[in-house]
Recover the amino acids of this structure.
């Protein structure tokens, strides 16, 4: 079973999706890949303990405070999970390029890395906004380039 609720952020409404194991989705409503992989699932509107924890995390993030732990239930391929684990190691206020990620993961294709980054179901918590194009350009953010710019600036200030 899946449950969802919503959080009003400074960047728009965020959908929070959980299963019995933890948070499995955090999407800006209407973003590219919103609910990707969960389209055929029955999803109930209900605030669960995992959703409450995610809302506390989001409040702390947008306030620039220390972030509490959130239990995640990550759905993806082994390759995607490997890329997403690498993203979680990028500190706030820092960035990497798709090429640097490919090198770190011994992957010959920055495009493959980009595909995995773009399908990240846990935006913000798995910080895909910290990945830039080869020339430092703000490219490839499912939530929109304007949000990516705002998030990077917010993290520099926090």
């Amino acid at each position: 079973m899946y449950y969802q609720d919503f959080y009003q952020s400074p960047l728009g409404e965020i959908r929070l999706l959980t299963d019995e194991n933890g948070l499995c989705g955090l999407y800006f409503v209407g973003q590219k890949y919103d609910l990707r992989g969960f389209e055929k699932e029955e999803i109930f509107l209900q605030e669960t303990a995992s959703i409450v924890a995610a809302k506390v995390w989001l409040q702390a993030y947008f306030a620039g405070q220390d972030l509490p732990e959130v239990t995640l239930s990550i759905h993806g391929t082994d390759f995607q999970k490997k890329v997403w684990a690498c993203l979680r190691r990028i500190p706030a206020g820092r960035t990497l390029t798709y090429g640097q990620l490919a090198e770190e993961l011994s992957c010959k294709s920055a495009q493959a890395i980009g595909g995995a980054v773009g399908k990240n179901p846990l935006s913000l918590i798995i910080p895909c906004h910290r990945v830039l194009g080869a020339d430092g350009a703000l490219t490839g953010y499912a939530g929109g380039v304007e949000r990516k710019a705002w998030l990077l600036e917010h993290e520099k200030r926090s």
Residues 4 and 158 are 29 Å apart (CA to CA).
